[in-house]
Write a structure and sequence with these properties.
Largest sheet: 7 strands, mixed
Bound molecules: S-adenosylmethionine
CATH superfamily: Vaccinia Virus protein VP39
Radius of gyration: 18 Å
CATH architecture: 3-Layer(aba) Sandwich
Number of strands: 9
């Protein structure tokens, strides 16, 4: 079943070209269709390290972003090549996920939301007896089926049709999703993932462009179009609004690089340096990517749907 949500897709606002990061007045903030309190959509030059930077093209919902079969090949490109930025980041992520999973020994079931071609799913399948991948894109799910034949795969939009998957899990993951998704989808996905967490369940999510990192600063200086960023503070606050308490943050990918298919300079040295930097807790706020380990907030009041959509209405 292809779980597109026409209502949500059509409600996705036309984003203005040339938006950047900066401080918003209340009036501007209200004018921005989905701007929540900390992820802001701006029209001025970047002025501070925090906040989210959006310089976006008009587009539909992120739900539609990977429906084209050609996306599979482009997504997989460089993923397994540690001489390229994407492959190096994935190598670091694998190490960090393993370290974070030490907080939850012997998980029995894991769900990877927005599993794409199944890289995280395949990795989890080597550690967790039962793994479930969820994605709205049929071509991505097909690729995931090849990579991870033991996984149960759910094709559809659980943010719209939650009945597609109602089991809880010890570990829920979402990689390269939250930053890309438009705020209402991001909010719905976080609520759904929170509700899937079992009693001691852990959520592991990544944010893959931090405005405080060297790479983030460089892109802000260039005012590069099509860029969305979030820092550790915004990410923590976002999760808190969805009834999730962050227990650990791990930064990685500190050195700047070009993400255009060019091979990294001195890849071996980079691997060693990046591997060492990823172990230094004090640097976490400056990584161009970071992982958050979170669990359901104990406080009942923060455990309900608390998405950006609701904030906006209040
Ligand atoms: C950038 S890919 C990330 C794939 C994978 N998590 C990874 O890190 O390799 C984003 C994925 O999100 C999926 N997606 C978008 N909206 C979704 C939704 N509402 N429910 C499930 N998956 C969704 C897309 O189809 C795409 O496969």
């Amino acid at each position: 079943m292809q779980g597109r949500d026409p209502a949500a897709a059509s409600s996705h606002h036309e984003r203005r070209k040339g938006e950047g990061m900066g401080r918003l007045s209340t009036k501007e903030s209200q004018a921005s269709a989905y701007a929540p309190s900390t992820f802001v959509t701006l029209t001025r030059i970047p002025v501070g390290a925090l906040g989210i930077m959006r310089t976006m093209r008009s587009c539909g919902s992120y739900r539609e972003s990977h429906l084209d079969p050609a996306k599979v090949a482009s997504y997989e490109r460089d993923l397994w090549d540690t001489r390229a930025a994407k492959g190096l980041e994935w190598m670091l992520e694998r190490r960090l996920i393993d370290e974070l999973l030490r907080d939850r020994p012997h998980p029995q079931r894991a769900i990877d939301f927005a599993c794409g071609t199944g890289r995280v799913l395949g990795f989890l399948a080597q550690r967790v007896p039962e793994v479930i991948g969820v994605d709205v894109s049929a071509p991505m799910i097909e690729a995931a089926r090849e990579h991870c034949p033991t996984a149960r795969l759910v094709l559809g939009d659980v943010t719209v049709n939650p009945e597609l998957l109602t089991e809880s899990a010890d570990v829920v993951t979402a990689f390269r999703f939250l930053l890309n998704a438009e705020p209402p989808l991001r909010a719905a996905a976080l609520d759904w993932m929170r509700d899937r967490l079992g009693p001691e369940g852990l959520l592991i999510v990544n944010f893959h462009l931090n405005p405080r990192s060297l790479r983030g600063r460089y892109l802000r200086l260039r005012r590069s179009p099509g860029v969305v960023m979030a820092g550790v503070g915004e990410a923590r606050a976002l999760l808190a609004r969805h009834g999730l308490t962050v227990r650990q943050v791990r930064g990685y990918s500190y050195l700047p690089y070009r993400r255009d298919g060019f091979r990294l300079v001195l890849p071996r040295v980079r691997r060693i340096v990046e591997g060492s930097l990823a172990r230094v807790d004090r640097l976490t706020e400056w990584g161009s990517c970071f992982l958050l380990l979170a669990e359901r907030s104990r406080d009942k009041a923060s455990n309900g749907p608390a998405g950006e959509g609701r904030e906006k209405r209040e």
